[in-house]
Structure formats: structure tokens, C-alpha cells
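C-alpha cells incoming
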């Protein structure tokens, strides 16, 4: 099979499967959380709390977030989060011991909240859900504008082990091109305050493929980030999606842009590998001498995930569920307002059932997209079948394209460096026909 038959390298970032656009309302009746969690393992749960507020919405962002929070909206949101946490903890029951192994606060921008509000968020996690935040890895996302000393001190004192900051570019012209206005001096000051907290893991997010970006300017951002010796770095390709700021002014991606992003990706990958980092996934790089204290790409795909907040997903072995999803700002505001007014959080409202076939696909996806690959024996033990029997066409195609590592140890299914580079093209190839149909039928809001 020739390279021309390969899918485009930047189709979709597969950070969850099935994708949220494949979720649908759960009716007749909506399942109760108590029934969903009754027989689930509860000894190593993950908690994710979603804060859907930002001080500005970047031009590339299609996340579930809104700008600002007027009329004490953050207070009402935390009130609803408290009610939801109470309902979820009650649904988990007391029949089996409940223990949380990891926690994360994301968004949006959790540090949009004031220090006092962040303290309340931590109290909800601890007092309502029973998470010992000082005893488990706790990851918190922040931004240059909201990484103030009082907020950072609070979350460090409450047990944060990882702080992740979205810088995207240290080049001010590129930040403006991505509709993310910021001064480099402010970014550097925020990074200094983060390091002052002593939180053991700093993650910096960077983006490649910005209009006007060159290998030279990309290296400038990489080197500026490396100067802080972050324990982790995420390199994200720029996407231009419908209903985003850039989506309204930028034409659709073309082959030339694909090649630019691939070129910058390879440059960034090689640069980090040469500076003491190991590759964990297409996006994630970890300093080789750093302890892996925070959640990584793999963590967000595990069963036993409990999401709090109107943009958070929850995963049981049989159902992935959340609340309604939107990208358009007006729709997001409507959903957030409805969430704050919700009194009964005892049922799953929107989601998708995961049958045995989808579980196989999900396991293969979440494993294969990691640089370390997938032990075939683990797959066979879990599902009683071989991935080569279950997915002969897909794996055969990946092999023909040179995306599988022919030098991997026996019993390990692993992507080649070029396969890893094409993760965003490879991942969607493993979506089931039913998930693809549901995603195609989804009407963006």
C-alpha cells in the first residue's frame, strides 16, 4: 500500500473513546448512578472536577468553557458541584471500600476560581467524595493570567503534585495569531511563581502549526520552555475546528499545512529527545530523571473515572456518561446555567453504552497510542482473543503503512516513530462503524 493511501495525519485528537459527539440522551429511563456503580471496582477510582471558566477563549479552543462568570456564577456552580458530589458519593454506596487513586482539576481554567473558591473545590473533593488530596497524585491546570501567588499557594498546600500551564507559544506574535494575547514577561513570571510553590511536576503545553510559525520560532519556544526544566512537556498540533475563533476566519486545513505540522512535530520531538526527555505519546514528553507523579494520557481513558461538573465525563465498564456538549458560547452558557439549577444528580443523562466490541477497540486505542505499546498477552487475557484476529484489516493496514514497529520485542504491539507521528490519523481508523455514524450525525451546537 502506498503512502498516498494513508489517512491524513491530523484528523482528530483521540483523547477519549467513544468520542463525546457519539453520546446521546439516556432515556426510558435514565439509568441511576447507584445501579451503574453497584458492581464496579471502587478500590482505585479517579476523580476529575471540571471548572468551565476562562478569562479569555483562545482562537483554537473547542473545549467546554465560557469567558467570565457574572452574577456570582462561580458560587452557584460550586453549589451544584457540591450537590453532584453528594449524590455521586451516595451512589457509590458503602458495600465495598471506596478509594481514590488519582485526582485532577481541569477545565476551562480551574485557577479562574479565587483562592477561597479553590479551597471550597478541594473541600468538595475531600469531604464529599472522600479523596485524600495529599495522599494521591493531584493535577491542576492553570494559565499565565490566573497563576497568581495566592491561588498557587492554596493548591500546593492542599496537595497538588502537578501543575499544567497552557503557554502554547513564547513568541508573542504567534500567541496573537492563535488568538491568545499574552506577554512573554507575564508567562515567565507565572512559571517562576509555579516553581516557587515546590510542586514536583511542572507541565508546559506548546502548540505547533500556528500561522507564521517556522522551525526557528518553534525552537525558540521549545528552548524557552526547556529553560524551566519542566518535568513534562506536551506538544499539540494546532487544529482549526468549527465554531471556534480561528474556525471563523481560517480556511480548512490542506496538505501543505499537514506537512508543516508534521515537520514541526518531528523537529520538536527530536529536540526534546536530545535534551533528556522520553516520549510517552505523540503529545507527551517526560524528563527522564523526573518521577511520574501526575496523570498522563493513559489515565484519562481508564474505567473507574468519576467526573464532577457539567463538562466532565465519567466511565464505568459498561457506560460512558456526561452532560450535554456544545462548542458555541451561547449553547455553553445555557448548559452551565441548567447545571447550576439542577437539584437531582442521581441519574446519568447523556452517554454511550460500551459493549464487548467497543471495549476491545478502546483497549487497543488507549494502549497503541502510547509509545510503550500494548502487551498482546494482556489483551488476550482480558478478552480471550487476539488483537490480530479482532482487528486484522486495521492492523494489516498500519503494518503496510510502516506504522507498526517491526523491531518491537516479541509479544509487544507497538507503533513505529512514524506511526506515533500519525496518531491523529491512526486513532480514528479504529473507531467502530456505529461510533462513526453517531459522530457524523451529531449536530454541532
Amino acid at each position: 500500500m502506498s503512502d498516498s493511501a494513508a489517512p491524513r495525519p491530523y484528523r482528530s485528537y483521540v483523547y477519549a473513546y467513544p468520542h463525546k459527539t457519539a453520546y446521546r440522551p439516556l432515556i426510558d429511563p435514565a439509568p441511576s448512578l447507584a445501579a451503574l456503580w453497584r458492581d464496579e471496582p471502587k478500590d482505585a477510582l479517579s476523580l476529575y472536577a471540571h471548572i468551565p471558566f476562562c478569562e479569555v477563549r483562545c482562537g483554537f479552543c473547542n473545549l467546554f468553557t465560557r469567558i467570565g462568570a457574572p452574577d456570582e456564577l462561580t458560587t452557584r456552580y460550586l453549589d451544584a458541584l457540591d450537590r453532584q458530589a453528594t449524590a455521586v458519593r451516595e451512589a457509590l454506596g458503602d458495600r465495598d471500600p471506596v478509594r481514590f487513586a488519582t485526582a485532577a482539576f481541569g477545565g476551562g481554567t480551574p485557577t479562574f476560581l479565587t483562592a477561597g473558591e479553590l479551597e471550597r473545590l478541594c473541600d468538595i473533593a475531600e469531604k464529599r467524595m472522600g479523596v485524600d488530596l495529599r495522599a494521591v497524585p493531584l493535577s491542576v491546570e492553570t494559565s499565565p493570567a490566573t497563576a497568581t501567588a495566592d491561588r498557587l499557594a492554596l493548591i500546593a498546600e492542599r496537595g497538588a503534585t502537578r501543575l499544567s500551564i497552557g503557554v502554547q507559544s513564547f513568541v508573542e506574535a504567534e500567541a496573537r495569531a492563535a488568538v491568545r494575547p499574552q506577554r512573554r514577561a507575564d508567562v515567565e513570571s507565572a512559571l517562576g511563581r509555579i516553581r516557587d510553590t515546590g510542586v514536583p511536576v511542572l507541565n508546559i503545553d506548546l502548540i505547533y502549526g500556528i500561522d507564521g510559525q517556522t522551525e526557528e520560532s518553534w525552537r525558540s519556544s521549545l528552548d524557552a520552555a526547556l529553560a524551566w526544566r519542566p518535568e513534562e512537556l506536551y506538544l499539540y498540533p494546532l487544529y482549526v475546528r468549527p465554531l471556534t475563533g480561528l474556525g471563523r476566519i481560517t480556511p480548512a486545513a490542506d496538505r501543505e499545512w499537514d506537512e508543516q505540522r508534521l515537520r514541526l512535530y518531528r523537529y520538536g520531538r527530536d529536540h526534546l529527545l536530545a535534551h533528556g526527555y522520553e516520549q510517552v505519546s505523540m503529545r507527551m514528553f517526560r524528563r527522564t530523571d523526573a518521577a511520574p507523579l501526575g496523570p498522563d494520557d493513559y489515565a484519562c481513558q481508564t474505567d473507574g473515572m468519576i467526573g464532577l461538573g457539567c463538562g466532565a465525563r465519567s466511565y464505568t465498564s459498561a457506560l460512558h456518561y456526561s452532560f450535554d456538549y456544545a462548542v458555541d458560547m451561547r449553547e455553553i452558557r445555557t448548559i452551565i446555567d441548567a447545571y447550576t439549577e439542577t437539584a437531582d444528580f442521581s441519574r446519568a443523562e447523556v452517554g454511550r453504552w460500551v459493549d464487548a466490541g467497543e471495549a476491545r477497540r478502546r483497549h487497543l486505542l488507549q494502549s497503541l497510542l502510547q509509545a510503550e505499546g500494548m502487551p498482546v498477552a494482556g489483551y488476550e487475557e482480558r478478552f480471550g482473543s487476539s488483537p490480530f484476529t479482532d482487528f486484522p484489516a486495521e492492523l494489516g493496514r498500519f503494518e503496510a503503512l510502516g506504522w507498526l514497529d517491526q523491531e518491537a520485542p516479541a509479544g509487544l504491539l507497538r507503533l513505529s516513530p512514524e506511526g506515533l507521528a500519525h496518531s491523529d490519523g491512526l486513532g480514528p481508523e479504529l473507531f467502530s462503524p456505529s461510533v462513526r455514524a453517531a459522530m457524523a450525525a451529531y449536530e454541532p451546537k
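note: The mean pLDDT is 90.
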